[in-house]
Amino acid sequence: MPMPDLQSYGELIYSLQDQYSIIRRSTLVLATIGPTLAKLEGQVTFESDVVLDVWELVDFEAGRILKYSYEVYQDDEKIAWYDPFEHPHIAKLASTYPHHKHVPPDIKRNRVPAPGISFEQPNLPTLIEEIERDILSRQ
Predict the structure, then answer these.
(1) 125: alpha, beta or left, given left = phi > 0 and alpha = psi -120 to 50?
(2) pLDDT at 137
(3) Please, which pLDDT band fits residue 1 given cuts at 50, 70 and 90?
(4) φ and ψ at 26, to 5 degrees?
């Protein structure tokens, strides 16, 4: 799915709780900050005290996410985060370059590819489905 326009993206964001029964609460807010720019900020709370902290800067004229930060917490401990910081020297990240995920052990330095994360499409469905598959289903 390509990056939708502002109205469609807002509809996606504000209907996540209806689409995914695993979401307990969402504080996500999509706010315009210029003629074509918007900021998405907030948290999505799941069962088992799992929280997805979201920050995006989106350019709807260009149809892309300019910057993002996604962090996953469980019981107030950061258990993963995603970022697009470039690491061209790490060959195992090439398949999703520059997008990658930090995971334990040594969460700061242990990076793995992040399939489905992109600048050109909404990332939240991928993130929510990954949380459901990789964290909540193992509880």
Answers:
(1) alpha
(2) 82
(3) confident
(4) -135, 135
Q: Are 122 and 6 in contact (CB under 8 A)?
A: no
Identify the residue whose tokens are 């509809």: 11
Cβ atoms of residues 19 and 11 within 8 Å: no
Closest CA to 84 of 117, 127, 108: 117
Q: Which two tokens stand for residue 37?
A: 């720019």
What b-and-e string marks burial along 48-87, b requiring 16 or more CB atoms within 10 Å of the CB? eebbbbbebbbbbeeeebeebebbbbbeeeebbbbbbeee
Is the CB of residue 102 less than 8 Å from the CB of residue 111? Answer: yes
pLDDT digits (tens, 9 = 90+) for 10-22: 999 999 999 999 9
Cβ neighbours of residue 46 closer than 8 Å, sequence gap 6 or more: 22, 23, 24, 52, 131, 132, 136
Q: What is the dihedral angle through the alpha carbons of 86, 90, 114, 11, rounded to the nearest 10 degrees?
A: 10
The pTM is what?
Answer: 0.94
> Which of 18, 76, 29 lies closest to 50 in space, CA to CA?
76
